[in-house]
Amino acid sequence: MAEGKYNMKNPAVKRILQEVKEMQANPSDDFMSLPLEENIFEWQFAIKGPRDTEFEGGIYHGRIQLPADYPFQPPAFMLLSPNGRFETQTKICLSISSHHPEHWQPSWSVRTALVALIAFMPTNPDGALGSLDYKKEQRRELAIKSREAAPKYGTPERQKIIDEIHEYMLSKVLPAPPQHSPQQPASEEDLSNKDGEAQSSPQNGDVIHEDHPIPEADDRIVEDAREVHVNANAGPLRVSFNAGVTVTRRVPATDSNTGTAVTVATPASDRLFTLAAIGLAVAIAYLLLKKFLKSSGHDIGSM
Fold it and tell me: Choosing from 17, 36, 93, 278, which is the catalytic residue?
């Protein structure tokens, strides 16, 4: 770039030419930016989509317009490549752009601004001017498409720089990750595993799984509830009695550290508890009947 054609006494010109030299001396794999030969206040750039995002693998071109009093005022940014995050050919609103001069620091540079722009790509737009909120799938499709060719924009000189930048970025950017395919139906192996799990699962409510808390004590208390219905007929007097009987018993528990299932098996003893409960209910009914007849002047022995 011929420096003789510019006013080297202009602070903005001196600063811009200094940044051009620094950019050429220390190129980045994440972006590339060059000023136009005819106007060093106008820059072309391309950034690489940030990794581990839907923009990964994309090459996004844009323009930078530097103000006449740069670096004391911030630049303006415009994207040329469809990306799903920022509108194209529209000045975008960022804390490092001309929309927020109060945030700009003169110590920042075009390099600083491009690094910040990459970081802004996957952030929430929050309705900012020039922002878009496409779905991730759409942004990924645009990222893949952005690699095909550089956008067409401006004069032949500008287009030459755009194409040059695009070729450089293609050599630095990794291929875009493949899009996730729709969920495939379960394979036979998966189905057989699920069948095995289903067969190994308990079929009754008497099994305590290892994900249920097991008491630390050596024995567990198990309560069997039985509801007994008794009808006692005494001549013209009919007594109906419902008794809910709960029998408490202790069942040995396995070691809680083994993580094995504990099964409570009670089919043989259930009948004994049921008979005991029925006998108790009948005895209670008899006593109530005897007390009632005695209070009414009847002798139960004569009945």
Answer: 93
Q: What is the pLDDT of residues 140-175, one digit of tens each?
A: 999 999 999 999 999 998 999 999 999 999 998 877
**pLDDT tens for residues 25-73?**
999 999 999 999 889 999 999 999 999 999 999 999 999 999 999 999 9
- Measure Cα distances from 244 to 179, 271, 290 in Å: 64, 16, 21
Judged by DSSP in three states, 178 sits in: coil
Residue 115 annotated in active site: no
d(CA 22, CA 79): 23
For the cut 80, the answer to whether the pLDDT of residue 176 exceeds it is: no
C-alpha span between 112 and 94 (Å, rounded):
13
Angstrom CA distances, 90 to 79, 282, 296, stand at 7, 92, 102
Per-residue model confidence (pLDDT) at position 4 = 64
Long-range contacts of 105-110 (CB under 8 A, 24+ apart): 106/71, 106/72, 107/71, 108/71, 108/74, 109/19, 109/22, 109/71, 110/19, 110/23, 110/33, 110/43, 110/45, 110/64, 110/66, 110/75
In the chain, which ranges are continuous DSSP H helix? 11-25, 110-120, 136-146, 156-170, 188-200, 267-295
Cβ atoms < 10 Å from Cβ of 44? 25
